[in-house]
């Protein structure tokens, strides 16, 4: 599989990358998760008398235009944005993966059909899909998840179809079919486990892409409505303070970078890990 | 295509823009424009067409009003009606007959002459069944138009209408020529001091001086209106020399970048801006005055006005903004008092946790204040769900189907107390007492009596709070320091530039 | 020869069916959306008669299926229709906007290739060295930056602090090629950098794969200089996978401009499309989406063919949308 063939790095470097990925994710997600839980119970209030405060011991990065702690608010937003992206990608993985498997298994017609869906899906501009969904159902978390998932389904279909076709052509599958195994059992025992590493790597790559897309959508106002903090929306509302309070623009941006970087490095590390296992086994 | 055609003609001016783009210092940019005697003006809303008689969009009026098109009457910066294409008029004592005398020698940009027949054509076209005129009611009250001579117009009305002369000054009532009326949407032809030159849809409109203008000619040889949908981009364009003036600057948070900058001058101007939290008075909960009063107490409106960052933003207590001569300050009727709000809600039998929807149109002030208002209402125990709608959905849902609880919107029309007398209007205020007051106001001719009635109506609204009156924000005009002669106030959507010039 | 013509016809025919399907999909989406284009045009004070008059003028008083069939019929006659909000032919609007969008996408593509391919190749040749590690780190970092945020930061620095480049807006070609180019440079960089990073990454692995093949050793053994080996043997062999990735990036450059256009106040096709959705300007949405879909699927089909031509052995083995 090409995803695995990309692994041409010395293992030491991969391990360093993996470590880096974990560390940079942990930097954001550990405090983020703690704050997220805390603020589920104590929602962010608005305090107009303490807006745009300078950094202090109480507010490490100061407060935002509505008087919320900038750091806490941004971290919670990061958790929300990542959560939305992960849920969307799980959806896309399940839908795309099973559709691809089905297409690999079934005849030519299904293949043409899924091929058409894939082409259309890739060609359809994601912002437009999101805009259509949002106007149809109103802006909301569910719509955002759905729009992101739709955009990534074709990629998963294609990957899983290619992987499954390759595996289905192997001799041991034919053997398994000749034995008493039902097609369902064949898939569960032989096909899926062999596809999993490739899909997982693709999943991690896509979570990073989805996070970037998510910030873009919510930046344009196509994300979930307030009061749910989201990285893109805070960037959109803070950007006017680029010159008087640059922290407000820099911090959310850096957090996006840390998250995407972390996920990508984690994904690359995982891919190398699988490649090594494949080689050794 | 359209802009390919004008490629060569455009050269001379664009050289100025080239210089200003390349300029390192904003000052030299200004000089480059000054030598060229042209000006680039930033506008927040891009016009869909350029015909104000067929489309209500604000962008059309900003570009064309008093620049390309003129009406029988005009207004000055203070909203006072002034002669324009009609040099004088008289009104019969019963208020039914208007007798206008036209300016002599007025010609349209295509050379055709203005006569009484042109006026008759314009108003009859606006009144016709297939007309798309946004203010058709102005013309539907016209009984007959007769032309005793080429420069005299007699208009008789079905019913007396005190605001007829001021309505004739609106963009919807500008005079168009039969020869060009059909094409005004794409290539406007009027009588004004500037001639339409080119339009890059969504991006900019360019006008040039009308050298054949009848009266004092415009000082500037060229005007470019550029459109910005993003406040940040607007501020950047002004800072880096692409723009010379921004009459309604959209990014108050960025004002400090201009406030201490000697290259720019910042002025505050008046405009009929009433930011309100509109309530659906048909909704069972919000139909109760107690609940509406509770909402008024629950919101720290002074705090919100401060958050807007606009210098001069202030709380209003009724549906009237301070620039109006009839304005009465009623902002203290329901001061911020969350305890009182909770008490009133309890009295009205509203359970804590009751859900209210807040529909927000895609406008910055609505999106920004929406979050704050939701937070205040949650403090007094209500549960607010924010719905971000885009424009067509907002129009359909809120305006068309009245399917909303609360929404944030600014009413920017002058003298629009009449909307509270229309029980089918979107917020559905249906109050016999107010309707009687308004009927009396419409009939009254005596200015003192009209003023007294207007104050009474404002008081009625302030106490009854059919909507929560939030704030008035003045418009902020930013121009390069040398520019003179632009309007500070905006009594109606317009940006007349005939008197504008580059000073020394 | 004949078979290739036949193949092409089949390829084109399949795509055409796909396009008609896509158009039906968009048409139904737009019909399902709440909000009425006439209402949007006439605004809040519209009177019912005026609204009805406009409905009739726009043909909205007819059943939906009839509207679609009529639209499709006109389309096959080459009539793209007229914009609801601007009242001008859609084609005119599009050609105005393409004067900005096409050069922007082109510039971004050129920048992405000019940066990504040489850097990726360099990293491959120096693989394992500290230069490689720094490059790979830089690539990872660039890939992680949201393009609109990059746009904001670039504007703040290059335009508003250093005053080297305009902060947004498009100067227009009539103001001369240089100012027009300058006003497209920052947005093109914001668009191109993340794509260049992706491209560099794939180039690196493609070149490494070729470098490890036996024939490279043979070529070196024959005494060819290193640059000659790279240029004559390695480069042509590593192109197909790079092209494959590039063909997946082009749609992103075409449709992904919407957000960057917003940041830089550029009125390109992206802004046109988004505004059209928000104003229910159905004819414009239809044609824009259809054109993007058409461009993308034909471009993909063609690039697959070019790839096969370049490297008949390679099977279409690509990584989904892993870009």
Report what the structure shows.
- The complex is a heterotrimer of chains A (281), B (504) and C (323).
- Chain A has helices at 2-5, 11-41, 70-105, 108-123, 126-137, 141-168, 171-178, 183-219, 231-238, 247-280.
- With 281 residues, chain A is an all-alpha fold.
- Residues 1-7 of chain A have low confidence and may be disordered.
- Chain B is an alpha+beta fold.
- Chain B folds into 3 domains: 2-50 and 192-269 and 476-502, Periplasmic binding protein-like II (D-Maltodextrin-Binding Protein, domain 2, 3-Layer(aba) Sandwich), CATH 3.40.190.10; 69-181, Alpha-Beta Complex (Dipeptide-binding Protein, domain 1); 274-472, Dipeptide-binding Protein, Domain 3 (Dipeptide-binding Protein, domain 3, Roll).
- Chain B has 16 helices and 21 strands.
- In chain B, a hairpin with a 5-residue loop joins strand 2 (73-75) and strand 3 (81-83).
- Chain B is globular, with a radius of gyration of 24 Å.
- Chain C has 2 domains: 2-76, no CATH class; 95-320, Orthogonal Bundle (MetI-like fold).
- Chain C has helices spanning 2-32, 37-42, 48-58, 64-76, 90-125, 130-143, 147-159, 177-211, 214-221, 226-255, 257-263, 269-278, 282-310.
- Chain C has 13 helices and no strands.
- Chain C is mainly α and 323 residues long.
- Chains B and C meet through helix 2, helix 8 and helix 14 of B and helix 2, helix 3, helix 5, helix 7 and helix 8 of C.
Task: Give the structure's gist in a few sentences.
The complex is a heterotrimer of chains A (281), B (504) and C (323). Chain B has helices spanning 2-5, 7-22, 26-36, 58-64, 116-127, 136-140, 164-167, 231-239, 256-259, 289-298, 301-307, 338-347, 364-379, 391-400, 432-443, 447-464, and strands at 38-43, 73-75, 81-83, 86-91, 97-102, 142-149, 152-157, 194-200, 204-209, 222-227, 245-246, 264-269, 274-279, 314-315, 355-360, 383-388, 406-411, 467-472, 475-480, 483-484, 501-502. Chain B has 504 residues and is of the alpha+beta class.
